[in-house]
Amino acid sequence: MLTPEIREYAEMPDRFAPVPEGSSVTRYDDGRLCFIQGTGWGSVSCVNVEPDELEQLVAQVRALARTRNYVWWIGPATRPPDLEERLRALGFVDPEDKVGTLRAVALTEQPRANPQEIDVVRVESFEDFAAGHEVQWDAFDVPAERREQRRARLRDDYEESLEVGIPVAFLARLDGKAAATAMAVPAERGVYLIAGATAQWARGRGLYRALVRARWDYAVERGTPALVSAANPDTSYPILKSVGFEDVCTIVRLEDANR
C-alpha cells in the first residue's frame, strides 16, 4: 500500500530531490512551479497557477532557463487541470525525444526478481563512469555531436558526482563487459530511479532487473526503503511492473517550441 507521501514523491520527484550547494544542478521552486536544471537539461513540474497566470509563468520559465533542452512535466496534481491543452494552444509540442507520456510508479517492498548471476557494482572509478555513459548513449541512440559534447565534460561530471554524492551510478557487466547502467537520486522519502539503459546485445538477460535490485538494496541501506520512477511505457514500464512496482499516475511531457 503506497502512502500519500510516496505517491506525491512519485508524481513530483524534482521537488524532493536534494540539490547540493556547489553542484551544477539548480532548482527554483516558488510554489507555483518547480524548475530544476543541470548541464544541458531541465524540467518544469508542480505547476500550480490560475489559468490567467499561465502566460506570465511561461515567460518566467523562459527567463530562468539556462538551456534550450527543458521539458514541462504535467501530472494530475497540476493546476490548471487543462494545462496540457493550454500549453499546446501557446505553441508547445511533443518532446524531441518522442517520449510524450510516462508512467509514475513506486515500490515499497523488495522487488520480486533477483538475478543473482548478474555482476552489478556501484560506480567508483572514472573508467566505470565513462563505460556506463557509453552504454547509455548507445542504448538511446544519442547523436555523435552530442556524445562529443558530453565526453568533453565527462571528467567534470564524474568529479562532481564524487564531491556531492549525487547521482549514484551503477554498472552491470556480462562476461566482464559493460552491459547496462542506471542511476539513483536519493531523497528523504526514498530513491528516484533514472537513466536506466541496457546495451542492445545484452537485452533480455535480466540486467535491468538486477539494477533495480541493486538500487533497492541501496535504498534499504540508507534507511529509505522506497523506489519511484517515471517509466517509459514502451521500455522500462513493463519490467518495473513485473517486479512489483505500483501505478501512481500518468505524466505528460511537452516542450516549448518558442523558447
The general outline is globular
Radius of gyration computed on alpha carbons: 18 Å
Based on helices, strands and strand pairing, what is the structural class? Answer: alpha+beta
The largest pleated sheet is described as: 12 strands, mixed
Task: Provide the succession of SSEs.
Answer: HEEEHEHEEEHHHEEEHEHE
Helix content: 25-40%
Q: Give the tally of β-strands.
A: 12
Termini gap: 41 Å
Question: What features would you highlight for this structure?
Answer:
259 residues; alpha+beta; twelve-stranded mixed sheet; 8 helices; 12 strands; 32% helix; globular
Give the arrangement of secondary structure elements:
Elements: H1 4-11, E1 26-29, E2 34-38, E3 41-45, H2 54-64, E4 70-74, H3 83-89, E5 92-93, E6 101-107, E7 119-122, H4 126-139, H5 144-152, H6 154-164, E8 168-174, E9 177-187, E10 190-198, H7 207-221, E11 227-231, H8 236-242, E12 246-256
Parallel strand pairs: 3-4, 10-11
Antiparallel strand pairs: 1-2, 2-3, 4-12, 5-12, 6-11, 6-12, 7-8, 8-9, 9-10
Could you explain how this protein is built, in words?
The protein has 259 residues and is α+β, with helices and mostly antiparallel strands. It is 32% helix and 29% strand. The protein is built from eight helices and twelve strands. The chain has helices at 4-11, 54-64, 83-89, 126-139, 144-152, 154-164, 207-221, 236-242; strands at residues 26-29, 34-38, 41-45, 70-74, 92-93, 101-107, 119-122, 168-174, 177-187, 190-198, 227-231, 246-256. Strands 1, 2, 3, 4, 5, 6, 7, 8, 9, 10, 11 and 12 form a twelve-stranded mixed beta sheet that branches. A hairpin with a 2-residue loop joins strand 9 and strand 10. The longest helix has 15 residues, at 207-221. The radius of gyration is 18 Å and the shape is globular. The N and C termini lie far apart (41 Å). The relative contact order is 0.20.
